[in-house]
Write a structure and sequence with these properties.
By secondary structure, the chain is α+β, with helices and mostly antiparallel strands. Helices cover about 45% and strands about 25% of the residues. Strands 18-19-21-22-23-24-25-26 form an eight-stranded mixed barrel, surrounded by five helices. Bound molecules: ligand C2E and calcium ion (2 copies).
């Protein structure tokens, strides 16, 4: 803002004009005008004619400095205004008049300008002898000596303190206007000064709708307490931002105050290279942060279990690999066995509850040493920072926890799980490799009987590939008729009479030869093709029975093995009915073997199916009894006829007293429930003797016969 404050002495036209000319001349021309027109008057300034002196003195305060800044002339008016006697200033350095307002830079620039022969103009604050301050609009004109060197500097000054006051008033008025505008804005706008001595901050302005909201939260502490808004959360950090802003950097940061999230920008305001204040603006990002958190929650967390999801697992795993050298860890894949069938048969809401319960059980093992993630449908993954042996124990405990009974809506469920583990630095080095190896290990568990946990080993890799190939081959085997049924006789323990047969599937692979059902049945279950294989087995067994009957032999009971997945199909009984109708077999000679675990997985529906089968005249037996989790109590609920004691007890009965006791107890209890007992895996006569002593009903095993193809069996059953 340029305000012309010069008052002229109107009587002395010429000088007035000249001075006017000098004062208003553009900087470029000023020196010329001065040197050519005015300087001749001043040439011998000590010999000023009185009139001129008066004129000049009235219009300006004037002083003359030498090249070093010492005052060589100062007019009386000026001295008076400054409260000095002329001799108190003459031959003193002009510094004596400094008010301490301007920085050294300011004077250095002025000297640089005038020493190079240019006119300098600006506003200077000067102190009187009494310490009062006056603002002068100042013009310093360098004048050359005879050698053309600038050694004399004539300083004209005009008191503009009024103007400065006006300026101040204007600024205050403007401030007031701004304040009004700012107060209507949503954001908070503020100005901060820093106390030079103690570095404390003084908030000069604090406006905007957000300001009101923040002030409310100060509980009436008033404007003096506004700094609390910035300096209560993350104090050290926020102080650093303010300090940096005062160093001249634009800063932005987030912080919290009474539950509000604020985003603040600090902009330094300069005056002559110095940051004189910092202007700040804050916005309320509380709802934005909430929305962000929600988006994050959706992107990184599973809505059912609230566990972090697969995306989060992937990201965390990358990070874990980076720190893997320092903090060793393992990746665990935990797959709930056959959850799919709970979903298919009982519906997803029940399946979801099972998942939720299992996630709670698993979480308890993780705590400080790692994180549990919901990887997908029935899969969980874990990153656990612990030693190899600890993870060994931990995974064992997890298996146990998962298979505890689950009660939902009055039903009790049992699920098992398979856990595959890969250890960073031992089994794998990259995130992809860790995931890949853990998932190979989990697949390996699944096809090797489930309910187990395994650390990855390189040989699994090859086996895993073989498994994948084998899966494809199983599908082809059905079409190419590569399956065959063998039959193993079941005999009366006391009489030795053959009372039944168990049909056992055989696969003659065109390249690999005979493949055990223990190998391919779990694969077929995993891929779902078991239902087609199962239907084939039952149809084939029924056909065989009918063929023997039609050949004139006495009908004999045939037992077929049915896997849990088949039994849990809602149309299982219906399917059997169709096969019976189609083959015209007498259903009272058909027996269905199911393992106790398969019943336990879905008790209510399975029991219903079992009742339907029983009504059709079919007999039912529980296979591999003693290896599952059910108690005898359950047996009451099942409409079964036979209990098949698992061969592990029978085989150990001779060497292990505990097994013998178990066998004895099982037989007794089964009898109290009115069930017939079948002992499997009888290989020796001594075992048969024991079974006779304990009044076991039936037995089967290599002692009498291995499973045989139908034609070979005929030779034994129906000798010519
Ligand atoms: P499982 O139902 O417990 O069948 C008995 C297994 O023990 C048969 O093995 C049989 O050959 C074997 N075995 C019989 N007597 C003895 C003995 O004295 N000593 C020894 N060491 N073993 C004996 P296999 O045929 O290899 O079948 C293995 C398993 O595969 C079966 O166990 C059954 O769970 C499953 N499986 C076999 N055929 C079928 C089928 O058609 N459908 C389904 N779903 N599973 C089947
Ligand atoms: Ca069986
Ligand atoms: Ca068995």
């Amino acid at each position: 803002m340029t305000i012309n404050i010069i008052k002229y002495e109107r009587d002395h036209k010429k000088i007035e004009e000249l001075l006017d000319e000098i004062y208003h001349a553009p900087t470029m021309e000023l020196k010329d005008t001065f040197n050519k027109k005015f300087y001749p008057y001043l040439k011998d300034y000590l010999a000023f004619n009185e009139t001129l002196k008066t004129m000049v003195s009235k219009a300006f305060q004037m002083l003359v400095m030498d090249v070093d800044g010492y005052i060589t002339f100062i007019n009386e008016d000026f001295c008076q205004q400054l409260g000095y006697q002329q001799e108190e200033l003459l031959h003193h350095h002009y510094r004596i008049l400094h008010a301490g307002v301007h920085h050294n830079d300011f004077y250095e620039k002025m000297w640089y300008t005038i020493r190079s022969g240019e006119v300098w103009r600006g506003d200077i604050c000067t102190a009187t002898k009494q310490g009062e301050m006056f603002w002068f609009r100042t013009c310093v004109i360098p004048t050359p000596d005879p050698n053309g060197q600038f050694t004399t500097f004539i300083v004209f000054r005009t008191d503009i303190s009024d103007v400065k006051h006006d300026d101040k008033r204007l600024i205050e008025a403007l401030d007031d206007d701004y304040r009004k505008v700012f107060s209507q804005l949503m954001n908070l706008t503020f100005r901060v000064h820093r106390h030079k001595a103690n570095g404390s901050y003084h908030f000069r302005m604090f406006e905007g709708k957000l300001a009101d909201k923040l002030m409310d939260k100060l509980n009436g502490q008033g404007k003096e307490a506004v700094e609390n808004i910035f300096f209560t959360d993350k104090v050290a950090e926020v102080t650093r931002y303010f300090n940096q802003a005062f160093e001249g950097e634009e800063m932005h940061f987030k912080h919290h105050f009474h539950g509000l999230s604020l985003y603040t920008v600090l902009s330094p305001i300069y005056e002559h290279n110095d940051v004189i204040e910092v202007v700040g603006s804050s916005i309320n990002i509380t709802s934005l942060e909430k929305a962000e958190a929600r988006v994050r929650q959706l992107a990184y967390f599973d809505t059912l279990t609230q566990l972090p999801n697969r995306t989060k697992f992937r990201e965390d795993l990358k990070q874990a690999v980076l720190n893997g050298e320092k903090v060793p860890f393992a990746v665990l894949y935990c797959d709930i066995d056959r959850l799919k069938y709970i979903n298919d048969t009982l519906g997803e809401p029940i399946g979801d509850q099972v998942i939720d319960i299992i996630s709670n059980r698993l979480s308890q093992f993780v705590k400080q040493r790692g994180v549990l993630y919901r990887y997908g449908g029935d899969e969980f993954s874990l990153i656990i920072h612990d030693s190899h042996p600890s993870i060994h124990d931990l995974s064992e405990q997890m298996l146990l926890a998962i298979k505890q009974p689950i009660a939902i809506q009055g039903n009790e469920f049992f699920v098992t799980s398979s856990i595959g583990i890969s250890y960073y630095g031992e089994d794998a080095f990259s995130d992809d490799e860790l995931i890949n190896h853990a998932s190979i290990a989990v697949h390996y568990c699944k096809v090797n009987g489930r309910n187990s946990r395994l650390f990855y080993t390189p040989k699994m890799n090859k086996m895993y590939n073989d498994i994948l190939l084998l899966e494809a081959d199983i599908r082809k085997a059905l079409q190419r008729n590569e399956f065959e049924l063998y039959y193993q006789p079941q005999l009366n323990v006391l009489t030795g009479e053959v009372t039944g047969l168990e049909a056992l599937i055989r696969w003659d692979h065109p390249l690999k030869g005979a493949i055990s059902p223990a190998t391919f049945i779990p694969l077929a279950e995993e891929s779902g093709i078991i239902t087609q294989i199962g239907a084939w087995v039952i149809r084939e067994a029924c056909h065989q029975h009918v063929r023997w009957v039609e050949a004139g032999h006495d009908p004999i009971r045939i037992a077929v093995n049915v896997s849990a997945i088949e039994l849990q199909r809602f149309d299982f009984a219906e399917q059997i009915k169709q096969i019976i109708a189609e083959t015209r077999m007498d259903p009272s000679y058909l027996e269905i073997e199911i393992t106790e675990n398969s019943v336990m997985q879905n008790t209510e529906d399975c029991i219903k199916t079992m009742h339907t089968l029983k009504q059709m005249g079919i007999s039912l037996s529980i296979d591999d009894f003693g290896t599952g989790y059910s108690s005898f109590g359950y047996l009451k609920k099942f409409p079964i006829h036979f209990l098949k004691i698992d061969q592990s007890f029978i085989r150990n009965a001779l060497v292990e007293p505990s097994s013998l006791e178990i066998v004895k107890a099982m037989i007794q209890l089964a009898h109290t429930f009115g069930l017939k007992v079948v002992a499997e895996g009888v290989e020796e006569e001594q075992v048969l003797k024991l079974l006779q002593d304990y009044q076991c009903d039936y037995y089967q095993g290599y002692y009498y016969s291995r499973p045989l193809p139908a034609t070979e069996l005929e030779a034994i059953l129906y000798p010519a």
